[in-house]
Amino acid sequence: MDDQQSKLAQPDRCASSSDDCVAALIDxxxxxxxxxxxxxxxxxxxxxxxxxxxxxxxxIVPRSTDEVSTALRVCRAHGQPVVVQGGLxxxxxxxxxxxxxxxxxxxxxxxxxxLDQLSGTLTALAGTPLATIQEAAxxxxxxxxxxxxxxxxxxxGGNVATNAGGNQVVRYGMTRKNVxxxxxxxxxxxVVRSLNKMIKNxxxxxxxxxFIGSEGTLGVVTRVVLGLHPQPGKVCTxxxxxxxxxxxxxxxxxxxxxxxxxxxxxxAMWKDFMAVATERLGLAPPFAQAHGIVLLIEVAAVDxxxxxxxxxxxxxxxxxxxxxxxxxxxxKRFWQFRESIYExxxxxxxxxxxxxxxxxxxxxxxxxxxxxxxxxxxxxCVAVFFGHVADSNLxxxxxxxxxxEAGKEEIERAIYRxxxxxGGSISAEHGIGRGKRPYLxxxxxxxxxxxxxxxxxxxxxxxxxxxxRVL
Length: 471
What we know:
Layout: H1 3-9, H2 15-29, E1 34-35, E2 58-60, H3 65-77, E3 82-85, E4 102-105, E5 112-116, E6 121-125, H4 130-139, E7 142-143, H5 156-162, H6 169-172, H7 175-178, E8 179-185, E9 191-194, H8 208-211, E10 220-227, E11 229-230, E12 235-242, H9 245-258, E13 263-270, H10 271-280, E14 293-300, H11 305-316, E15 321-324, H12 328-338, H13 344-347, E16 350-357, H14 360-377, E17 382-387, E18 393-400, H15 405-421, H16 446-459
Parallel strand pairs: 2-4, 3-4
Antiparallel strand pairs: 1-2, 5-6, 6-10, 7-11, 8-9, 8-10, 12-14, 12-15, 13-14, 13-17, 16-18, 17-18
């Protein structure tokens, strides 16, 4: 149990104050909107991180922005801490309840309110699953630039709150780059709305950007306006084997030069990652021999443009082998390697994952040093490296049959300190939440942290929203 857990498990508020708050919420919203005790579903007791399930004091399930506003107004009046929940797919503990908190879930605030094909925009309620938005965009002949492995269960509000990244960042950017407008409820219940659909709008401060990536600490996102993109047309998918990370970057630059702006996916899977996929998870090896790195590449290309770039790189010795998908079945088979990470739960009962960013010019050195550190100090762990390297994102998973909390924390300290030493970030796309809060100072200077605290104090002076997350 961390310090914040202890603090909230034994709040200064008396129990009657908490009971009064719950009673006031039921009176204001109705019993069907506020659940307590055994009526709180197990799913709302945890997110996708490794913390033990914790039953919140109560669960609020609003159906409208007005109800979110009412709920926060009541909670603020009672000084009641609130944790905001979306799809509960987060890996940093941002939506995982502390004891004594009330959970505010947007799971019932779902639906696409408008898809404007002329403007190329889509407006949705915050609880809408990302996959629902993607499907609606596709039916309209457009594309949502945000794509994550958790697309079927993550919510668009959660994507905005964490500034989610994912598979297509190299072309379409992080969530921030895809958002045009927001509706947000502040901690005191004030509703702030800018459902802007225009790319150009310089009328004063763009306050919406402040809430993107704030992880629910500054306000609750209730509506989102996304800018959509044209469909890329033909997509060419390839698996490519290279020896070194330098070869990987050389190929990235060669493709970008030949097909500027057309790279959709550029995923790297090191030899250790591929070994687990083939030897432990049973996927058929894609090549006759193992290579240093296997790349999963997708580009929006016509004819054989990608094949030509790969052939030229092979002639230079930068590419050792390559497979280009000839069918949807091939494409699915190629993606099975990258998505094999989602099967680790049945292999390893205990694991610790990292979502870090490293400058590309330090990536090869950093990954080698981290691999050596894990092998030397934590010999009982299986460590794999993979990631969206075109945007400097490196993922690491260290797994073992027996790995207690102390062991996990020791591994975390080692990797995060090395990340800082190589000029990287402790969080590339998953946020800070509870899990990475102790390490935030490794990636932010003291004055930056103080500015964050000032913003938090200005927008949530009572400190009720997502206590102990980020700051």
